[in-house]
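Hey, I was hoping to borrow your eyes for a little while. I've been staring at a protein lately and its backbone has me curious. You're getting the sequence in one-letter code plus the fold written as tokens. Would you mind checking whether the tokens look sensible for this chain? Here's the protein in full, and shout if anything looks odd to you:
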Amino acid sequence: MASNTEPAEKDAALAAQEASAPATPVHTTSARDAWYPAGKRDLFILRELVTKDFKLKYRRSVLGVIWSVLNPLLMMIVMSLVFSFFLRYDNIEHYPLYLIVANITWQVFSDSTNAGMMSIIDAAPLLKKVRVKKFVFPVEKVLFSLVNFLFSLIAVFVVMLWEGVAPTPMMLLAPLCIILLMFFCVGLSLFLSALAVFFRDLVHLWSVLLMAWMYATPLFWPVSMIEQVPYAFVRTLMYVNPMYNFVTFMRDTVVYATMPPSSVVLSCVVWAAVSLALGYWVFRANERRFILFI
């Protein structure tokens, strides 16, 4: 009996010793985190989504990415002919350049907000199957519009050569305007995408609002016409208009090689900060309920 009880006593003592010893923490890493740490995963998803959208946009297109250059050029030619001959805006200095700079600035805003507003709804099949941070989808749409915007800058340089406008050091401020515009678009896309999940009528209403916004912004008509508006309150709204300030910022640095007024720069900064803060707050406050409505 003694020989049988000794091994049992040894096993019990060993088990008690192991239980009293401090536990060694065990770190487990998921397969996803092993390949892409949390800090890099969102960047990877953004890059893949932008690449996918880029390929889909130019799939089966003969000219491909060249359309990003041709489209603003063709639009500028058509609008220059229309507004120069029929509305007599040809007295604006470097009118074709005046027009194309405003057009591409407006287009990146319009494209990013339209696509960003639908981003959560369009990503519904993926969101129902895969756990991913939802803010990635509106941000990706803005980044994709930025890629197209960068290609359209080639058209701007072509028009600069045609108009005899030489690049100046003041153009180095243009990237600041673009960055602020991207922040503004990201905030607005977050805001619109959150609201569109619950109120689908916003999708139809936004196109009407964009059209009214476009005509209220001096894209093709002279800025001096704002002073001809009879009501002071309306004139103030047109000057406060965020797209008026972003377009003016771009024109001053690219077309006229001048420093934008401090009020314009400050307005761009304020609108970018307010849009980003408001959009982020609304999006984060409602994102847990998206899955119930998409």
